[in-house]
Amino acid sequence: MKVAKYLLIFILGVFILYVLEGACFRLVEKYADNRLTIAWGYSGTGTFNSILKHLPIDHFKKRPEDEPIDADQSSLEKAMVEGEYADAVMSFARPMRDRYEEYVKSKLEPLSKFEIRDYGEVRGLVLPGLKKPASLEDVNKKDARRVGDDLEYSEGMLLRVLASTKPEDYENEFAQLESTFGFLLENGIACLVLPVSSGEEILDKITYLQAEHKLLTQNIFAWGDQKAAGYLLEACRESPERFKGVFVGDPIGAPRPPNVTGLPWLTVQISQQTLSKEDGDLNNVLSWVRAGRMINSVYPSRLGGLLHVEDSPKSGQMPSFFVACLLQCSRYIERVGGKWPTPQPLSAEDSVEGITVASDSPSMEEEKPFDLERIENTIQKLSKEEEETIRLVDATFDCEIVKGYRQLHSNNPNLKQVSNRDLVLMLGAEFEKMGVEVLDQVKARDPLFYRFYLSLRALEDSPLH
Amino acid sequence: MYSINRLFFLSLGSVCFLIVPFFWLALALDFSALENFVVKLSTTEFVGYPIPELLGAQKGATVIDQVLRIKFFFTVLVVAYSLFFVALSRVEESRKRNNYCARGLAVPLFILILGFWFKFIGDDHIISKEEKTELFQYTTGCFIISVMMLTYSFRSVKKIKPQKEEVTETPKTSSTEKKETESGQGLVAKEDNEKASPEEESVDGESEASGSETEALPAPDALDPVDDLAVPEAEPAVAEPDASVAESEELPPPDVLDPGEDLASGEEDPAVAEPDESVAESEALPPPDALDPREDLASPEVEPADAEPEASGSETEALPAPDALDPSDDLAVPEVDPAVAEPDESVAESEALPPPDALDPGDEPPPLPSVDAPSDDDAAQSQDGGLANNEFIENLGSESPPLTPTDSEPPSS
Questions:
Q1: Could you read off the pLDDT of A127-167 as tens digits, one per residue?
Q2: A249, B125, B235, B273: which sits with the fewest CB atoms below 10 Å from its CB?
Q3: Distance between CA atoms of B185 and A29, rounded to whole angstroms?
Q4: pLDDT tens digit string along B177-205?
Q5: Do B117 and A19 touch (CB under 8 A)?
Q6: How far B128 CA sits from the closest chain A CA (Å)?
Q7: How many CB atoms lie under 10 A from the CB of residue A387?
Q8: Which class in CATH covers the domain with range A92-366?
Q9: Are residues B216 and B338 in the same domain?
Q10: Are B132 and A97 inside 8 Å of each other by CB?
C-alpha cells in the first residue's frame, strides 16, 4: 500500500513536471528557441544532441522517409504523415506564431514607420529601413560612391505572388497584408506584392530586382496561393538558386520538382478540402516536400520541406506557419552566410532512389529501406564534404572585411585556397597603397582587421621572418 | 439512522438522476431554450478550442454531431455524479462521506486540467493573449480548488487530548460552578464527597440524554466531571462552611438521597439537586409552597454572591428576574427554575425531584446568623458566604419550617 502510494506520487510528479516543461516550451519563445539549439545545435553547424536524441521529444521525430514504407499508403495518408511531422518539428515556433497572430490582430497602422518605394516596373516595395556603411567593395562595385556611405539592405525580401494583374486586386492584397508586412519588416524582411501572370514573369522581375538592388534582394522568399503557387513552383523549378524559401498554399498546377539537391526551403500549406481531392497536384507537392529535405545538414534536412495541413486564414494574412518557417530560414542564412548550398543535379543513383525524379508520380516502392551501396556512397560524400569544410573553415584572422571580401568573391574558386592571413596582408597592403585616409577609414570600419594587418605586417617586416 | 448530511447526498443524487430524463424529454419536445443553449455551447470556445473538440469531436464535424456529443457528455457526467452521490449516501461516517465527496470532485478536476494541458502542449494550436489569460485563470483556479479539496479530503483526524482541554476549559468550568453556586444558594448544600459522586453521575445522565448527536461532537467542556472536580476554587468555598457549621455534621445522613434521582438531575446545578435532599429530608413536612427557592435567590443571602464583581455578570443576566416568578408556580413546576440554564436539564431535574409538597409550611425559619458572613468586603469571602448560606440552609432544611408564599421578604438576620 505504501509502495503504491509512493509510486502514485512519483507518477503524478512526473506528469506535473512534464506539463510544466511542456507549458514553458509551448508558451515561452526564448525557452523554445534554446531547447531547439540544445537539441539540434546551432544553425549551419548543428548536430543532434547525444543525450536528448534518446528522448521522445518533437525535435527528433523521424522524417516520413525514414519511417518504414507502406506500399499501400495513399497520397492522403502520406500527406497526413507529412502534416504530423511538420507540426512536430516546427513545434518550437508556436510561441512566435502566437506573437505574430497577436501582432496581426492588434497592431494599428503597421507600415506607418516604414518607407514604401517604387523601383521601375516593381512598385510598392516596403523597406525595413536597415542601413550599413558602404565598404570598399561596394565602392568598387559602384554600389556606393564612398566608403562609409549608408547603404540600404535587408535580411531578405518576401514576394507575395499574386496571380492577377488587376490594380484593384493588388490594392486589396496590399491592404490585407499590411500587418503581415509590418511584422516581417520589424524582422528585417522587405516586402512586396508582385502581380504576375506566369512563372517566367516572376523570374524576370526577380532578375531585375537582383540586378538593380543586390543588397535588398540577396535572399528571396516567395509566397503564393493556388494559381500563384503553381507559377511560383514553376519558377522555382526553372531556377531554384534564385530563391531561399518558397511558401505555397493549396497549389494548383504544381509541376514536378527538379532533379537537383539544395532546393530552397519549401513549405506547403494544404487545407482539408484540397487534401480530400487527392489529385496529381498532391503527389507532386509531396515530391517537392521530400526533395526539399534532401540535404546533409541538420536544419535543412529537417525543415527544408514541410507540408502543413491547415485551412488558410480568412483575413488574408500570411499563415503563421509560413512566417515561422520564413524567419527560421532567415536565421539559418544569417548563421551559414556563404555556405548556403547551391543546387546540384542529382546523380543517377539518387534519382532512382529519390522520389524527385519519379516518372509521373512518386513511386515509393522503388525506395529501399536498407541499401548498403547507397550508405557507402553517402559516407564517402559526407567525408569529402567534411574535408572540404575543414579546409575552408579558417577561424584565425577572421574579421568583417575578410568575410565580406570572401562573400563578394564567392564564385572565385581560387580565393578558397587563400588563407585569411594572406588575405589580410594582401588587402591591408592594397588599402595602404590607396592612402592613409583609406586605411583610417578601414580602421574605423573594422578595427579588428586593422589590428590583424598591423601585427602581420610587423611580423613580415621583422628580421626573424 | 439518517443524518442530514446523508440525506443531502441521497437527495442530490436522486435529483441529478432525475435531471437526465427531463433533459432528454425537453430536447425531444423541442424545448427551444435548452436546444439553443446546447447549440450555443457547441460554438463556445475554451482557450480557442470549441467545446465539442475538447470532448473529442473532429474539427470538421457538423453542428448536429457536436450537439449530440455535448448531450451525451452531459448525460454521462450527470449520471456518473448522481450514482456517485447516491453511493456517498451509503457511506456510514459523515466524515468519510465528505472526504469521498471532496476527492470525487478534486480528482476529476485535476485530471481534466492535466488532460487539457496534455492536449494543448501536443497540439498545433495558436492562441491569442486573451486566451492565454483565460488559460491561466482556469488552470490556476482549478488547480487551487483541486489541491484544496484533496488536502481537505486527506486531512488528519484531530485527537482530543483531555489534559489540554482541562487547562483550557478550567475557566469555563469555574464560571459554570459559580453559576451553580449562585443559583443554588438558597438550596441545600452537601458534603464534598457526597457532591462529587452525584456530579459524575449526572454527567453520565446528561450524556445519555443528549443522544447520538453529541457523539460526533467533541465532549462538551462544561460537562466534564473531571474538570468540575478539579476546580480548585470550589473546594475551599465548600470546605470553609463545613468548618464553621459544625452542627450540620449532626444532621441526618445523606442516605436519604436517592442516587437514582441524582443521576437524573442536572450535574451543573448541584443546587437543583439539593432540593431533592431537602425534600427527602422533609418528607413528613406539609405543603410545598413553604420553601421557595426563588425567594432564597432574591433574599439578601444571595446578594453577596451577586455583588461579586464581573464574575456573575452575564451569567446572571440570563436568568429570569426572580421577582417575576410566582413562588407557588415555581414550586409546582420545578422546571421553570431560573437557576437551571438548559430546559432539558431542568426537565430532567423536575422528573427526578420528589414532589415538593413534602415540605412543611408550618415550620418557621430559624434565625440566620451565618447570613452576615457574605457582607464582608472580600470577594472570596462573599463567595464563601454564598456557599456557607447553602450549607446553612441545607442544615436548616431538615429542621426549619419552610417559608410561606406570603413572606414578602426573606428572613433577615
A1: 999 988 888 888 887 778 888 888 888 999 999 999 988 88
A2: B235
A3: 83
A4: 444 444 444 444 444 444 444 444 444 44
A5: yes
A6: 6
A7: 10
A8: alpha beta
A9: yes
A10: no
